[in-house]
Amino acid sequence: MTTSRGPYAKSARVRAAAVEAAAELFGTAGYRGATFKDVATKIGMTAAGLTYYFPDKDALLAAVLDERDRPAVAEEAALASSGTRADITERVMRILSENIAQPGLAELHCVLSAEATSAEHPAHEHFQDRYRKARDLLTDTFEAAVARGEIRSSVPPKTLATLLLSVMDGVQLQWLLDPEEVDMPATVRTFISDLLAPPEAP
Amino acid sequence: MTTSRGPYAKSARVRAAAVEAAAELFGTAGYRGATFKDVATKIGMTAAGLTYYFPDKDALLAAVLDERDRPAVAEEAALASSGTRADITERVMRILSENIAQPGLAELHCVLSAEATSAEHPAHEHFQDRYRKARDLLTDTFEAAVARGEIRSSVPPKTLATLLLSVMDGVQLQWLLDPEEVDMPATVRTFISDLLAPPEAP
Fold first, then answer.
1. Do residues A85 and A151 make contact, with C-beta atoms less than 8 angstroms apart?
2. Using the beta-carbon criterion (under 8 Å), do B128 and A178 form an inter-chain contact?
3. DSSP state of A151
4. What percent of chain B has pLDDT over 90?
5. What DSSP designation does A24 have?
6. Gap between the terminal Cα atoms of chain B
7. Which domains does chain A have, with CATH numbers?
8. How many whole angstroms separate alpha carbon A53 and alpha carbon B147?
9. Mutation target vs A (from B108, B162, B175, B192; most A CBs, 10 A cutoff)
10. Which single residue of A176, B16, B21, B191 could bond B117 by disulfide (Cβ 3.0 to 4.6 Å)?
11. Helices marked H in A102-156
């Protein structure tokens, strides 16, 4: 329950503004390029003032990541229970459209996930967990689609899940490096049509 | 022609040692984590002394990247002219084995290529160029294999090239984050078997 007044409401507003500012700055300048003070300045605070809400840049990072992931995780959970081939394709194409519209956030994901491969990175567990959950949800989705006879079963569902996430990340890397040369939606769509193909006609 | 003595030979030796040390340090501490001075210290020089051979860390980075890529580019050129499905599979599996044996270098590639999506990064053009060349060579390879009837032609060769590179990068990211959970060779091999499948029997 959020009340619209009082110290709790102010705290929630400041936190939300700081997370939005951090997401924008991390998306343009990168996590390492943006400072804690930059985030504070953007919302008209001092760095000391912002530490009342977030102790440091890592805490901002964690909040940005949670905020970004919340809608995606809910949608993926829904997909897992009833996702048809068309649903999966539509969901993936929508993610790509969002990334094309906000290349700064796409780059943020690309850089943070790569940096986070290091066990010491503050987002290491976040990304490990995020990919595990995404693989598990997609595996369930593909298992259900195979069981319904919608996609052929020559490739194990868990491998399909790992591959779909890999293709999305890998094509995005090439697209970020060279947007004129790489047609991200067409490439990913081809992968989905081919690898998530319906069973051969009997 | 390299002579074994004289100032030129010493210069070549120092350069080679510095590039090796930089590759190792960038692979363990990351490009941003390792300093120019760390590289100098590792080969028993001062930072000022090393500037005689390399003006700065970016120059070391460029040399490391060139050094790493040289054998790969030559092999890929050979693949493009005569690569059969078996050759392509073997070459890809060999790259994966090398990366499993040297996770530090795999992580270096992962982090540098992601950082380099930013147009201001010193390796931006290097990675843009590297991916263009890799796509072109693999496209030629796949075109030739389709023409010989070795792989089916439902997916355009350029798309296959982009997808294969994407799968290698994307699966590697998940493997670096979670080596216990992600079987990199098996996943990539499944992709190759399925997407580079021979034509259907007539």
1. yes
2. yes
3. S
4. 41
5. H
6. 56
7. 1-55 (1.10.10.60), 65-195 (1.10.357.10)
8. 63
9. B162
10. A176
11. 103-115, 124-147
